[in-house]
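Q: How do we represent a protein-ligand complex in a form that can be generated token by token?
A: Start from the inputs.
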Amino acid sequence: MISSTAKTEQAPIDYKCKICRDEEVVLKRREDGSEYAMDCECKKERRAERLMKSSKITSKFQSRTFNSFKLDGRPETVKQAYEAAWNYVKGYPKREEKGSVALLGRPGCGKTHLLMAISNNLISKGVGVIYFPWVEGFNELRNNLDSLDDRIRVLQQADVLFLDDLFKGQDNTPEKRPTRFQLEQLFAIINYRYLEDKPILISSEKTISQLCQMDEAIGSRINEMCRDYKVTLTGGIELNYRLQ
Ligand SMILES: [Zn+2]
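Then emit the structure tokens for the protein with zinc ion bound:
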């Protein structure tokens, strides 16, 4: 008896949660003495940690929240983008609306920051978000063609997909057109999510009509999906806070 107590006290295991000893389940006792299992308080937090890990959101981007977004002195159009993002988070998930967000137009307005703020907020609530930055994401797909199908499936089926900087550095000229590989994979992802009513968060310097010029099937679906939360940031260089 004594030795078993001593053994427990010596155990140098450093549990993250002392309540459940990382089992994520705790046993409770009913009045009649019988026991039942319940999720530990830490379970939600752990789920958020796991979701963050698989989201591909780097630690730098985890600090992009609504609180860290500077609104003071910013132009009206930036405030509209902020409001759209904030309303989206407040209303998520709202089935009667088309639940996707597009922040389009001028660079340097904080589009990525705001969509990151949505992503971080949703992950903390247990929603699975996958981050897919256009250029790096496609480099990774191309370098891992063996696992292409699996990866595309992840991008199709994630609770929420954040497509950052869509068509970055590209346009409709022959030299800068997106590759056929890119357009085919993108269509497979967008069309799946369109049919299944799965949200996307999109940032792009292109407007909807430019997206449609580059690929009408993709552009028109994005337009419809983002109908209720779409802001196109227009205006001059004064919008770019990186230059201020
Ligand atoms: Zn626990």
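The beta strands are 25-29, 35-39, 101-105, 129-133, 160-164, 200-204, 229-233. Residues 14-46 form one domain.
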